[in-house]
Structure formats: C-alpha cells, structure tokens
Automatic annotation (TrEMBL), chains A, B, C:
Domain of life: Archaea
Species of origin: Methanorbis furvi
Signal peptide, first to last residue: none
Protein name in UniProt: DUF47 domain-containing protein
Family from the record: Belongs to the UPF0111 family.
Coiled coil: none
Gene3D superfamilies hit by this protein: Phosphate transport system protein phou homolog 2, domain 2
Length: 209, 209, 209
C-alpha cells in the first residue's frame, strides 16, 4: 500500500520543510565548492555559510514544532524527527568543517578538500532527489538508487580520507597535521551524515511501500 | 490528553530514577566547577567524580532493569531508555573530560575550561527542571523553555570551542594543542549530550501532551 | 510470552544473517589478534580485513533488503535494523583501526594495542553467544550475562585507553602521539559499538521475554 492515498493537505508541510532542508544542504555544499574555487574573503564567505546553518536550524525546529501541532503525520513521527535531525547534521558538519578553515587560518585549500567538497556536493544532490521522492513514494526505485549512490559516495570519502592522511603525515609538521586532519575528518563525517539521511530514506521505504 | 490521569503508583519509579540521574548530572557539573575554582588535589577530586559516574551508571542500569520488570510504563519504553542513556552520557562526558585533566597532567585550568564548566552547570540545572516537569507534564511550557535554553547553551559551547581553539593554535606547542583540544572537545560534547536530553524531552512532549 | 511460538520459518533468515554478522565480528577480531601476533605483511593482512569488512557490509545490506521483503518479522523492524547497524559498526571500527596501522606506517604494535585486541576478541565472543540466544529467546539469562560481560569489557577498554594515553604523552613526540592516540581511540570505539550491540540485546529482551 502506497502512502499517497492517505496524505492529507495539512501533512504536506513536512515534505515542504524537508525539501527546504535538502535545498539548504545543496546550497551549503555549493557554497563550500565556491569557497575552494575562489579562496578569498574567507571571513565574509564563512558568514554566508553560517547564515545557511541558521536557516537549516530554523527549518529543523519548524519540523519539531509542526510535529507538536500535527496529530496525524504522513510518516511515523520518529522518522520525521530522525530525517530532520540527519539533514540538519549534514549542514552542521559542512558548516563546522568550513569554520575550521577560519579558526585554523588555512591559507589555501588542498586537492583533498576539493575532492571532499565534490563528493559532498554529489551526495547533496542525491539527498534532494530522495527527499523529493518521499512526497508520493510512487517511485521507490529512485529513492533506493539515491541510497546506493550516497553509500558509494561515503565509501569514496573514506578513501579520500585515507589518502589525505597518508599524504599529510609525510609533512612531519605536527601543528599542520592536527589542523588538516581535523578538517578532513569533519568533511568525512559530513558524508557519514548523508548516509544517515539515506538510512532514514531506507527505513521509510520499508514501512511505507 | 495529559499523562497524569493514567500514571499509576508503580510507574513513579521511573520519575524517581530520572530525578536521581538529573541530580547526579547537577552534582557532577557542580564538582567540575569546584575543581576549577580550587585546582588542587586533582587525583582525589577525580575519585569523587568517578564515584558520581558510578552512581550514574548504577541508576541508568536500574532504569533498564525496571523496564524489564514493568509491563505498563508511563512513557514509551523507548523514550525511557533514550532518556536514561542521554542523562548517563552527560555524566560520562563530564567525567571523561575531568579524567583528562589527570591523564594529561594539566597544571592549571584556563578561562575556556571555566566557561565550559559554567555552561554545563547551567544546562544541568535546566535538565533538573525539565525532568521534574515530566512527572505530571501539566506544564509543557516550562519543559519547552528548558529545551530552548539547553539549545542556546549548546550554541554557546560551540562558540567557546571556536574561541578556545583559535587561541590554542597561537601557542605552536603541538603536545599542548593535542591535550587541550581533546579536553575542550570533551566538554563541548557534554553539552551536545545535554541537547540529546532536550531532544527526548521534546519527543515526550510531542507524544504525551 | 516468549517469541518462540510465533516465529515462522521465513523469519529465520534474520537470525541466520545476524549469526553470519556475529561470525564476521569474531573473524575480524581474530584477524586483528593474528596481525598483532605476527606483525608482518601488513598490506596483505589488511586486504583480508577489508574483505571481512565488505562481507559484513553485504550482510548488513541483506538484512535491510529482507526487511523490505518481509511483512511480519520476529523482532521489531527497528530492532532488526539497529542490531544489523551495530554489528556492522563493530566490524567497521575494527577495520578502520587496522587500516590506520597501514596509513600511519606503524612498525610495531605495542602492548596496549594487543590488550585492546584481546578485549575486542572477548566481546566478539559474547556477541556471538548473545546473537545465538536471540533465535529462541528461551534462555534470557545467558543473553543478560553477555550484556553484563560486554559492559565490563567496555569499561576495561576505557581503562586501557587512559593507561595508553598517559604512557603515550611521556614520549613528547607529537606526530607519534597523534598517530597512536587515533589508533587507540578507534579500538576503544569498537568496544563502544559492542556495547551498542548489547543495548539492542537488552531492548529485545525487554520487549520479547
């Protein structure tokens, strides 16, 4: 039995909020790529990232508030809450990784950061597609495809991290190692959080299709 | 529909256990502030923290045991288990952050540690208020207020961490950086765990008010 | 009421998959001990670990797929999914800790790594026993015993970590500190993930016995 038949207008709010969250995920991932392409004015560009993070936060809180208000929800309340949290976590780790460029006064991004940004951007796109598919759930194959692709991208991020660390420890400069290791790990965790989003997608598919 | 009407005496045990857990959270947060105010005799003071951590552990296990015994629970078994775990996590991260003062042989706390301790102490108080409110759930606004305040404090801890790291990397002493970064991060995670407690509060409010 | 009465043949697949996952946990833990006993040919030995990790991944995905296919499951779908994830996480952290031996070009394991491997191996055995007990749930005491033992082992891993860090910081070599701290922490997290498995055991016992 599909979900479509019993979705009533008032419930659409959740899909709209998730779509806005996914949109912010994409904008944050885009912005990260922009930062690495034109690595100037980092404090100003970080302020823009922080704005996205605040918009993401506000959106997640609107989901929790709506859950308080809505008696019947289209998806299980727990899944709604897990999805809002997971989407928010993706944004948070893109934000905190970017913040570290500033805190650690990184003068130039390296090839590994650029690779992470590209993987995150691709995963963000899959998240947008997957979230859009939740509205009707009439094409579970597309959502399953997003989950598989996000998993593949997360594995790719693991490999980038291994490669980046192996390269980093050649430098023998401990302070530099501490800084870059922390940045790489934050971006890698951003892709783990994308995988959490995919896990909620999978769990919604299990229950509702 | 409020919860009050169907709470039967045998179920009160959960509220009592949560209140004892919240009490230990407050005692641990207090003890952390005491340690930083009078930074002497750290091994002995850490033993007292470890005692609190063991009392917290024992209390969390009593919750799980009671869940095994009790057929009908006032709140969903899952929420009871999540709340006990989240409260225990707060205590664990206060404990492990404190333990690092000892492991890393920190000779003096710095202003950032003192700020973290103050934020943790305030969040602990909100947790105590929130837990007390669960018993009757007849004042959801107070619990919502605790959630908002804990979220604010968690954001404040994020800012302290940024500031602390920025300051730390001026020292150029890598071993010192590794040690203090680890301590700061543990205290920051303690406030993340306070936010997990607030998330369970919010989810209990959704279901039961 | 026990679970046994309503387990139908088609549901046995989950127990079989969990037993295979627990088997891989044991093999990975064994392999880690072998690596430390005969610390040669690490790239080749790591390839074998990675094979185990891939087998573990495939098994976890089969659980999720079966959940998609099976209408009635013996245990709650959520617990099935949490257990598969927790077992997979144990394997992942054994794998990633081992991977770091390679990335960081560790020339010799130390006594702490050997102690971690021993604790992980013992916890893996408890996991195997606990998973085997899930099939009929007619001996809850045994599973409870596994949970207690896994908790004890996790505490032991905490103590090994404290001792290992205290020892490590005597070296004053920051790059070495960064590398070994990371490896120790990964093995300690592997035991945290064993505790997550035990938490799912406990939660299954709560609902089904």
């Amino acid at each position: 039995m599909g979900l479509k038949s019993w979705v009533v207008p008032q419930d659409k709010i959740f899909f709209e909020l998730f779509e806005e969250q996914a949109e912010i995920v994409c904008e944050a991932a885009d912005h990260l790529q922009t930062i690495f392409t034109d690595y100037t004015d980092i404090p100003e560009k970080y302020r823009q990232m922080k704005d996205l993070e605040h918009r993401g936060d506000a959106m997640a809180h609107r989901v929790y508030e709506e859950l308080n208000r809505t008696f019947i929800t289209p998806i299980e309340p727990e899944e709604i809450s897990r999805l809002a949290t997971a989407l928010d976590d993706v944004i948070d780790f893109i934000d905190s990784g970017t913040n570290m460029l500033l805190i650690y006064e990184i003068e130039q991004p390296d090839e590994f950061m650029v690779e992470f940004a590209s993987v995150i951007r691709q995963a963000a796109e899959e998240i947008r597609t997957g979230v859009a598919g939740l509205r009707t759930l009439n094409d579970p194959e597309t959502i399953t495809g997003c989950c598989i692709e996000i998993n593949r991208l997360e594995n790719q991020a693991d490999d980038i991290l291994s490669k980046a660390l192996q390269n980093l420890f050649k430098t023998k400069d401990p302070v530099r190692i501490i800084k870059l290791k922390d940045i790489y790990e934050h971006f890698e965790i951003a892709t783990d959080k994308c995988e959490d989003v995919a896990d909620v997608f999978a769990s919604i598919l299990i229950r509702h299709t």
